[in-house]
Design brief:
Catalytic activity: an N-acylsphing-4-enine + H2O = sphing-4-enine + a fatty acid
Number of helices: 15
Largest sheet: 9 strands, mixed
Helix content: 10-25%
Enzyme class: hydrolase
Strand content: 25-35%
EC number: 3.5.1.23
Shape: globular
Cofactor: Zn(2+)
Number of strands: 37
GO molecular function: metal ion binding; N-acylsphingosine amidohydrolase activity
Radius of gyration: 25 Å
């Protein structure tokens, strides 16, 4: 899902923003230079025998989890670009899950990270890589680290340095950006420290009830041979699970399955890792008893649910936001996540293939705005070029299946734009026939590449772990685009197609990747394919070169990573004071829980709190639900659990109230506790506080 899908709510402000931006860019569009004059080829391999893989006799593997939860109050949320969707609370914490894998024969390592965030932006990757270099030297570098996102649309935004992604979040927010960088780095450090002898194996299962094709009109334009691969439903149902066993015990998995993390719609204002986050939580916490507060160094089980080619795969089975299988988005989050968990579990229990044959990786930075694409990769057998990034009018229409729809003046489809943008396109295409050859039939709404609002020099990665190949792309890849990329790797390496995966949302972000046939339809996904009709063939060319390099044992020039653009700092939080009404203290209980409660029914308490953004309490919790036992009080739930929610708002305290809810499943005697930090007067730092309710019964 594109991070700037306009919503159906607060349209006037969004319309003004887009209109002003569009008018400001008209001159830039007219002056776009000819793409053919700029075109360059992708990097070429150079001979280097030192890169030849050595067959491994075993593996080392390490696992790590760390918190990446951003600011839970007053920050715009990443994903839907709804100008009224600002964080108001916390349902479940977002986490980064890292795996370090080493081939013991060659000593080569690879880091795979799955973070419960919307995207990996280049500034996030660059900061993490710089910290790794300072800590470990050249052990972890550009080529052997893959950072990926689950693409949840229920997290705090403002962590990109490209202004395109901060337009609707109040600018860049240092607190959230730091939380993400710190958490990803910390998860890798923990995985590094956790390295131990391991067995790696691959299991494949099918999950046929957790996704639906949300762009069927575009998908149906693809050739019959492509569509036959996915069957009548037009969905990718392959669930691939890499199991990590140490001392005979399953203590880590990475699952890849394509579905958007958009079970929660724009009306949700609670931070959540969405359906993939629930799958991770269920396996770790509910099935294996991991305590995220006390087990940070040795969690016992780490389960990452990563993305593949999810560009046109929606979890909303009824093809409306927040619907299917039920009309309750939170129930749907749990159901779709649970189905992914079951598919991954089957992958660990089915006949598995032991991974062997060594480890290798390649990454190159490619300027996707000026790639010359050879005729062997293009649909018509002619040389074509990519061009500077541009978003089409269908982008402004939004994905009606996941985002709730965009502005009423737009609709998906190449004939559904706005007369103003149609005129802009005609002027631009007349001025630059090369641009028309690249971008048509797109109606250009925003020429974002001309003014540097998006990243155009992008990392493309290929990793081999034994018999498993991962194509790391900074794109939202449709299933047919993914299939063609997988076939390129298969043709070069001879690997079976089901052992080759496209891991989207990897290392950077550059919107969508559609086939040329899908692009011509100019549905939402095609309008959001930045670099024109031949973007996928350009990626096929690069991926083929990466696969050839790995197969032949040659090296590639990595190139230089994208620089850090100028960005707009974030606006102050909506709540600026931690003061309370006369006679009140932070931590005071304003509303006590009912004295008697039933299992399965919500228990609620309200505390006099402070701005939770003061201290994000990573590795800790804002709340604790405790049960009385013979030996004292025992924590049974915290703010990372499915059963709890916190909402912050101005209320009875005349400051910030924290409303805590919990749904109990077991009878007993309980209490709730709340923890926070309030700002001292005159900027003198923070003061920790806590509050505790009376005891209450659950029957």
């Amino acid at each position: 899902m594109n991070p700037l899908t306009p919503s159906t709510r607060r349209r006037p402000r969004l319309l003004v923003a887009l209109s002003a931006l569009g008018l400001a860019l008209v001159t830039a569009v007219i002056n776009i230079p000819s793409t053919s004059a700029e075109a360059t080829t992708t990097p070429h391999a150079t001979a280097a025998g030192t890169s030849t893989p050595t067959s491994g006799t075993g593996w080392l593997a390490g696992r790590g989890i760390a918190d990446v939860t951003g600011e839970p109050l007053g920050v715009g949320m990443m994903g839907y670009a709804d100008t009224s969707q600002f964080t108001e609370g916390l349902h479940q914490r977002q986490r980064s899950r890292a795996f370090v894998i080493e081939d013991r024969a060659s000593g080569r390592r690879f880091v795979h990270v799955t973070a419960d965030i919307g995207m990996i932006f280049s500034n996030i990757r660059n900061d993490v890589m710089d910290r790794l270099a300072k800590t470990y030297g050249d052990t972890y570098g550009e080529q052997n680290v893959m950072l990926t996102a689950t693409h949840t649309h229920a997290g705090a935004a403002g962590f990109s340095h490209y202004n395109m992604y901060n337009l609707f979040s109040g600018g860049q927010h240092e607190g959230t950006e730091s939380a993400i960088v710190d958490g990803i780095f910390r998860s890798i450090v923990r995985a590094h420290d956790d390295l131990a002898p391991a067995e790696l194996s691959l299991g494949i299962s099918e999950v046929d009830d957790a996704n639906v094709n949300r762009s069927r009109e575009a998908y149906d334009r693809n050739p019959a041979g492509d569509k036959a691969f996915f069957g009548e439903r037009g969905t990718d149902t392959q669930s691939t699970t890499m199991s990590i066993r140490r001392n005979g015990k399953l203590d880590g998995v990475i699952n890849w399955f394509p579905v958007h993390a958009t079970s929660l719609p724009t009306s949700n204002k609670l931070i959540s890792p969405d359906n993939k986050g629930y799958a991770e939580y269920h396996w770790e916490r509910e099935a294996r008893g991991v305590d995220y507060v006390t087990d940070s160094d040795d969690p016992g089980m780490v389960s990452a649910f990563a993305q593949t080619n999810a560009g046109d795969m929606s979890p909303n089975l009824a093809l409306k936001p927040g619907t299917g299988p039920t009309d309750d988005p939170f129930k749907n989050t749990r159901i779709i996540g649970g189905r992914q968990y079951q598919g991954a579990l089957r992958g660990t229990e089915a006949t598995q293939q032991e991974l062997s044959g060594g480890l290798d990786s390649r990454l190159v930075y490619v300027d996707m705005s000026k790639v010359e694409v050879g005729r062997e990769f293009t649909p018509d057998g002619k040389v074509h070029h990519t061009c500077k990034a541009a978003l089409g009018a269908p982008f402004a229409a939004g994905s009606t299946e996941d985002g709730g729809g965009g502005l009423p003046i737009f609709k998906e489809g190449k004939d559904g734009g706005n007369p103003v943008f149609d005129l802009i396109s005609k002027i631009a295409y007349t001025a630059s026939p090369a641009l028309k050859a690249c971008q048509a039939p797109k109606e250009i709404a925003l020429p974002v590449g001309v003014v540097g609002m998006v990243q155009q020099k992008l990392p493309v990665q290929l990793v081999r772990i034994g018999d498993l190949y991962l194509v790391g792309l900074p794109q939202e890849v449709t299933i047919t685009s993914g299939l063609r990329l997988r076939r390129e790797v298969a043709e070069v390496t001879g690997a079976p197609i089901d052992h080759i995966l496209v891991n989207g949302y990897a290392n950077a972000y550059a919107h969508y990747l559609t086939t040329p046939e899908e692009y011509d339809s100019q549905e939402y996904e095609g309008g959001s394919t930045l670099f024109g009709r031949y973007q996928l063939p350009a990626y096929q060319q690069v991926v083929s070169e990466l696969a050839t390099s790995i197969e032949q044992g040659t090296e590639l020039e990595v190139g230089t990573r994208a620089g850090d653009p100028a960005y707009v700092p974030g606006t102050p939080a909506t709540v600026s004071s931690d003061s309370l009404g006369l006679g009140l203290h932070h931590g005071d209980v304003l509303t006590e829980p009912s004295a008697s409660n039933r299992t399965g029914e919500e228990v609620k308490a309200v505390f006099a709190a402070a701005n939770p953004d003061n201290d994000l309490r990573h590795g800790d919790t804002y709340l604790s639900v405790e049960r009385r036992t013979g030996s004292g009080w025992v924590r049974v739930a915290d703010d990372g659990d499915w059963s709890t929610k916190i909402r912050w708002a101005t209320g009875r305290s005349l400051g910030i109230d924290a409303t805590v809810t919990w749904v109990p499943e077991q009878a007993g005697t309980y209490r709730m506790r709340y923890f926070g930090a309030a700002r001292k007067p005159l900027g003198a730092g923070l003061k920790e506080f806590s509050g505790t309710t009376r005891t209450f019964q659950v029957r």
